[in-house]
Amino acid sequence: MNIKYVAVVNSTTGEIKQLFTARGQNLAEGYHEELGGTVVHIFDELLSTTQFVNTTYYDMETSTWLSREAKPNGVATWDGSAWTWNNDDLLNLIRLERNSRIQKTDWAVLPDSPLTEAQKTEAQTYRQGLRDISSTVDMSSIRRMRDVVWPTKPDFL
Predict the structure, then answer these.
(1) Per-residue pLDDT tens over the stretch 117-151
(2) In angstroms, rounded to a whole number, what is the distance separating the alpha carbons of residues 78 and 60?
(3) In a domain? residue 157
């Protein structure tokens, strides 16, 4: 059976660190100190290497590939059996997104804005809702950014 891919996995968590197409002479399976991980050969063709990396990990105890959900957020780390993260780090990601959304509406509240007074008031209300998001979001129910319930952006913004 021909080797199709070579994966370098974290020797503790089984998370894929590198995945490349096998070519010619390949690295032997097992731990490689210079790579900082364990080399595992893959004999099957992969439809999507990106999807494989995102939704698969190597179980070191059973020497098998197992499925997992894709990384739920930008601060999650794989611990070998589940995704974990610090809620403060996730809240910081939410704040970065909030700041970006506020910045995109700065023009609307300037004195020379072409908006009507009613629209300016609506824009200010929207911006205040964004500023309040970090204190109103329920971190126990947030796993990914799409779980955040953002204030409704006015159509004119």
Answers:
(1) 999 999 999 999 999 998 999 999 999 999 999 99
(2) 14
(3) no
From the CB of residue 98, how many other CB atoms can be counted at a distance below 10 Å?
21
* Residue 85 CB-density burial (10 A; 0-12 exposed, 13-18 middle, 19+ buried): middle
* Residue ending a domain, choose from 14, 46, 70: 70
pLDDT, tens digit (0-9, with 9 covering 90-100), for 73-126: 999 999 999 999 999 999 999 999 999 999 999 999 999 999 999 999 999 999
Beta-strand pair 83-84/77-78: antiparallel
Specify the residue for token string 């004999």. 43
User: Does residue 132 contact residue 150 with C-beta atoms inside 8 Å?
Assistant: no
Looking up tokens 């955040």 gives 148
Q: How far apart are CA 89 and CA 72, in angstroms?
A: 13
Predicted confidence at residue 79, as pLDDT, reads 95
Quote the CA–CA distance of 48 and 14 in Å, as a whole number: 19
Residue 61, domain extent: 5-70
CA distance 88 to 91: 5
Contacts of 68 (CB under 8 A, 6+ apart): 55, 56, 57, 78, 83
Query: 58 and 111: one domain?
Result: no
Q: Are residues 66 and 92 in the same domain?
A: no
